Amino acid sequence: xxxQEQIPHPxxxxxxxxxxxxxxxxxxxxxxxxxxxxxAVCDLDADRAxxxxxxxxxxxxxxxxxxxxxxxxxxxxxxxGPKEHARLSVEVMEAGLPVYTEKxxxxxxxxxxxxxxASRRTGQPCMTxxxxxxxxxxxxxxxxxxxxxxxxxxxxxxxxxxxxVHEDPSWLLFDFSIHVVDLARFLFGEVxxxxxxxxxxxxxxxxxxxxxxxxxxxAVSAHRQGTITEEVEITxxxxxxxxxxxxSAMMRHHDNRVVDWHERPYAEIGYRLELAExxxxxxxxxxxxxxxxxxxxxxxxxxxxxxxxxxxxPVVLDEIH
Length: 321
Hints:
Layout (H helix, E strand, L loop, with lengths): L11 E6 L3 H7 L8 E7 L3 H11 L2 E3 L2 H7 L4 E4 L6 H10 L4 E4 L6 H14 L3 E4 L6 H10 L9 E7 L9 H6 L1 H11 L2 E8 L4 E8 L4 E7 L7 E7 L4 E6 L3 E6 L2 E7 L7 H14 L7 H20 L3 E2 L5
Parallel strand pairs: 1-2, 1-4, 2-3, 4-5, 5-6, 7-10
Antiparallel strand pairs: 7-11, 8-9, 8-15, 9-10, 11-12, 12-13, 13-14
Helix pairs in contact: 4-5, 5-10, 8-10
């Protein structure tokens, strides 16, 4: 992607499409810590749009095209239903603006590829909100994995769950579990082959074969009532391994010793840091971490898992386009 023109003023002028509960609790409250100014809020529900404009600042709109035309924006955040992410992100980029969307980047890998093509065509960056890449515990784990002393990555196991049976049976894999699927790529790199089984789309067990030769397993469940659980174990060379609980408590072992430790509240899971990355990337005229080019690959991996579970066979990633 071509370098973006750097923003001439220190505070980015942001607009947000979406004023539902998730964005109101997780996105809007974190904007105050950024070198950015919220100047426009848009939601189809006029009451929600005006409520968030009063609470967090900016004009309110019920038509995103009017917001794009009138608000003099530098960038846009999209936080609506997943089925609208691709259409809205393409419209924002075609209006000449960088865009950040909640995950998933689109309803399918094909639609994500369309977003990627729009990003390349317009020269505008598109970032997907895979927050786990920005959580300090996983950042420290990633830094350890790529260090020479950790040795070659050999085994990754991720166990994740929550208590929610959604009306859309694809929700567990493509909306909730996509976070840990992307995390697997972030930690160990690209996957070449998967073999998955599912129990009525309320639980998945997936074996991953990584391009670097490592192996892994991702297990997810929707039947853990009352809580979200997340346990990650990472093994490198002999005697080198890392454990991470709930995305916040990390312990690194080397040669029978604990050599690094990180523990923070569960709230430290990456929302503020991913938003900071979006703003920084625009200011610096570079591609953001968790760009649409990367999140397209995560969508391909999710579709490979889905296909493997449905057909009960190994699936090579080259089958998914």
